[in-house]
Amino acid sequence: MSLPEGKDIDEKISIIGNAADRVNAHMDDLLNLSKPPLLKLRTANINVLIEESLVEVPPEIFSNIEVVKELKDEQVNVDAERLKRVFINLIRNASESMQGKGKLQITVHRVQIKERKFISIRFEDTGHGIPQEGLEKIFNPFYTTKSKGTGLGMVICKRIIDAHQGNIEVQSKVGVGTTVIVQLPFFSS
Q: Same structural domain for residues 29 and 104?
């Protein structure tokens, strides 16, 4: 079937394509709830994954948000695409909580927890924060504070990080902001 050429048609086709991608992502999310994600591990530089994640977020999200990065050149053994999905979700959540203005700080450093070494990635925002009752539910399926949210984003993030044998923790104070800490096992080549 042929369609007439033109900007309007191209935009409509693009909208349909984006909607189909979102439906596929939601289906993938639902499937991942029922089973652990299968990881395709490879060695990757954590800085590169963070930078690629920032590029994949629509730039208008950052129009009045200052992004501060304190990165370290660390190697991780991860499923890069799944980890970028986690980072993109955390960056979007942070920017939405700041309602278009504020500061997002992303910090990478090494930590040791009970004889194990981890690479810690902190996402700190100056958003409205999460009340204690929300923090207790943040990893529950279908829990959301957003009018258009599915309540699957943080659940999927946790499942992906758990599959990497890592940790994810959320700290928040209403009126101050939220910090999400992702810890991935240290990879020495």
A: no
Q: Say yes or no: 106 and 120 in one domain.
A: yes
Which residue carries 């960056």 as its tokens? 91
Into how many domains does the chain fold?
Answer: 2
pTM of the model: 0.81
Asked whether residue 79 falls in the same domain as residue 126, the answer is yes
* pLDDT tens-digit map of 149-165: 666 788 889 999 999 99
Per DSSP, the three-state class of 72 is coil
Q: CATH number of the domain that 107 lies in?
A: 3.30.565.10
Q: What are phi and psi of 61, to 5 degrees?
A: -60, -30
Residues across the chain: 189
Does residue 42 contact residue 187 with C-beta atoms inside 8 Å?
A: no
Query: Quick one: 112 and 90 in the same domain?
Result: yes
Strands 42-45 and 75-78: antiparallel
Q: Are residues 22 and 88 in the same domain?
A: no
- Give the position of tokens 């659940």: 155
Strand runs labelled E in the chain: 42-45, 64-70, 75-78, 101-113, 116-125, 167-173, 177-185
CA end-to-end span of the chain, whole Å?
53
pLDDT for residue 30: 67
- Give the H or E element holding residue 34: helix 7-34
Pair type for strands 101-113 and 64-70:
parallel
